[in-house]
Amino acid sequence: MLYESIFVFPTFEVERDYEKCIVCKTCVQQCTFNATYYLPHRHKVVTRDTECVGCRRCEAMCPTGAIKVRRYQGEFKENAYWSPRDLKDLYKQAEQGGVILTGGGNDREYPIYWDHILLDACQVTNPSIDPLREPMELRTYLGRKPDKLDIGYNEKGEPELRTKIPPNLVADIPVIFAPMSYGALNLNMHRAEAAAAKAMGTYWNTGEGGLHRELYPYGDHTIVQVASGRFGVHAEYLQVSAAMEIKIGQGAKPGIGGHLPGGKVDEEISKTRMIPVGTDALSPAPHHDIYSIEDLRQLIYALKEATNYEKPVSVKIAAVHNVAAIASGIARAGADIIVLDGFRGGTGASPAIVRDYVGIPIELALAAVDQRLRDEGIRNWVSLIAAGGIRNSGDVIKAVALGADAVYIGTAALLAVGCTLCHKCYTGRCAWGITTNDPFIAKRLNPEIAAERLTNLLRAWAQEMKEMLGLMGINAIESLRGNRLRLRAVGLSKEEMDILGILPAGA
Amino acid sequence: MSGYRETSGCGLSGIISRKRELIPGEEIIRSIVHLEERGNQLGAGFAGYGIYPQFPDCYALHIMYDGPYVREDTEEYLKSRFIVEHFEGIPTRKVPSIVDRPIFYRYFVVPMELPGEEVSPDDYVMATVMRINEGIDGAFVVSSGKNMGAFKGVGGSAEIAEFFRIDEYAAHQWIAHTRFPTNTPGWWGGAHPFTLLDWAVVHNGEISSYGTNKRYLEMFGYKCTLMTDTEVVAYLVDLIVRRHRLPLKLAADVLATPFWKDIDRMEDGKRDLFTALRMVYGSALLNGPFAILVAWNGGMMGLNDRIKLRPLVAAVHGDRVYMASEESAIRSVCPQPDRVWAPKAGDPVIVPFDDAKDAWEVRGCQALL
Fold it and tell me: A71-101 pLDDT, tens per residue?
């Protein structure tokens, strides 16, 4: 029998051109999913297609270009209702009786609102601005701002600032690396994010697994997370940070907690998370000291007390149906930054059923929250960070125009260092060395090279954002923030446009 | 949500006598007509200060009506909120080229009884203006300050001046505007100046940040109903200067804020102040090309956008200060000024009346000379 079970059908097939193959066995070495193996008696390398996850590591590393990873050509009988994915998932569950896990972000077909939004440009009546010749400003302050300033005068009669401004983060580009924990990622990836954030004058986020001591020198560029498991949270952790973030929810899996399998918890992770080696790190679904908005307020102020009111506190929530009212409550509970994580956001591990069907698109959530905070006259109180599926600088610009102060990028950052979206992060076997803690595989991710790639990405996006601001006749990003008149919709319903607060193209 | 918005090219001119001598209307007409090349006969307007000395303490409401019925409704509303000391039709002349004209009235009023101590008379008047502009279809408040008034409409600057008999007024300061609207609805409310209380603004340019400015202002109770981007300038100045009590110089530093590269090089206290201004008032930054004149009962300010994408020229002659889109508009009424210069990008030219030099609005700024 070709397959271990008659119900396991492959998703990918690996084609080898044996004319080109020199049997160097690189592919065998590179495959971390045990799909590729060497047959000594035939002096040949072959792939067991059922094990292939489509990560394309073998294809990329093959020195002679002998390998092509393809979608499996065999087909189930055509059925417009039951997709091959439904069938395969169902077979798997019938076989194993478990929850189907996945990694990465929601890959199902839903409307992508970014792609229904187009940008404006200047013609004649308003000169566009060339960012290569004129200053173009992306600097962004994140945190609470007072509604007004009080001004006094010194003895020379010069105006002086009398208002104390609450602590703010200052980012040279409004793009921040999204929370992804040490454990979900390995230390090499954290090293790369920290170095790139520092180089580009922005921030990275530890996620909920604590901060390795080696990275404390990057504290000024680090947002540290406090999640329901409280892993790695201690006074020094809070004190070295630039800002603290309370993680309530994650766009990929709203309403459920995290699970780092014990197998991934090695010595260093154990020390950083403050849990014994080899134990599962389970984050509860809710914070068990936050069952209400007033409880959240207590934790926000506990963190502020612990750090002498010198750092902003962020609260991250998944984009759910009532997100606007929840965000208003969070602003009133004392948060300085609110992170909205849309349903396209990634995860290291989540039940596929949750990732695929829970939450709402970030575009709609962001627009609704920004408008609600304005209706209540409290938009100045908080900064908004949009997260969950930001793919390019165009998405960033559109997010800012809808009302975001900044964005998080997670999946995009992983892609920058080699991720191919195989969605097997939860296995700990990432062939690209990103989401694995196997020291042998993790070496595939060189932190210096990864940092350079992340820096390149941000630099490229910054330049593109400046071009887009310039063609709109804007030379400071704050003049685009919430400027929905510079957006137009194509192919959206009246209701969708009302929620997004944008007009149809041609209007 | 209405997406309709005017964009227009324009010419502007302003004259102020720092000693509050009366400048005949004929002078500002001559100056602005000289800039007619920059307009297209589809809009012009004037604002004069000190033109109603007989009612110095009354708010002078200039109101434009589409017809007689809406006037009745509006007057009923006004009488419920104000004591009307005097009212009359705004005197006009017949001008052959102006055929389709609204009705103009002016009311000299004082607020009846304020709802509470926290509401100032100015706030009360502002709320009335917003209520009429948004809520009463066919009625628009053209100006609402004390001892000042705005006159504007669809037509060339010479016709509008003729129509409103500008030559019969004399003012301590004038600002004027001629328009080149690129998509006009032929609507009189869309002409400049835009006003609120005694703030009057004439503007040449297009505000790229309009959407941001508008949504920011809405948080503070301003309703942008006039379908033209210039409206936000008057409201931003009102918010920052009158309500938030920042001096005008700092308001100019908000509207045309210095670049971060320059702020970073300032000395400590000043850097903190400017950083805070941008952090708190970032949504009030006017982006895109503009030259504006802002007038109020204490004086006049000229300002360019921070990379000077529109022309603005200033000149001084004795106690008179002139600002205009082009030098020719100044020379046409003042052939030999003592000094003529082009203000730098983002550098405000603030000209207080001599008697207003110590007013808090102009504190902390050296006057131009």
Answer: 998 888 999 999 999 999 999 999 999 999 9
List the domain boundaries for chain B: 8-255+288-362
Name the closest residue on chain A to residue B280, using Cα atoms. A145
Q: Are B60 and B143 in contact (CB under 8 A)?
A: yes
- Give tens-digit pLDDT for B29-57: 999 999 888 877 788 999 999 999 999 99
Best mutation target, B287, B308, B365, B366, to test chain A (most A CBs within 10 A): B287
Put simply, the answer to whether B209 touches A141 (Cβ < 8 Å) is: no
Is B10 among the residues known to form the active site? yes
Looking at 2.60.120.810, 1.10.10.10, 3.40.50.1220, 3.30.70.20, the CATH number of the domain A12-98 comes to 3.30.70.20
Structure tokens at B234: 């008057």
Fold of B8-255+288-362: Glutamine Phosphoribosylpyrophosphate, subunit 1, domain 1 (3.60.20)
Cα angle B105, B107, B110; round to 5: 165
CA distances from B201 to A79, A356, B12, B53, B246 (A): 66, 54, 10, 22, 18
Query: ipTM score of the complex?
Result: 0.93
The CB-based long-range contact list for B77-82 (8 Å cut-off, 24+ gap) reads B77/B131, B77/B132, B77/B136, B78/B107, B78/B109, B78/B128, B80/B112, B81/B111, B81/B112, B81/B124, B81/B128, B82/B107, B82/B109, B82/B110, B82/B111, B82/B112, B82/B128
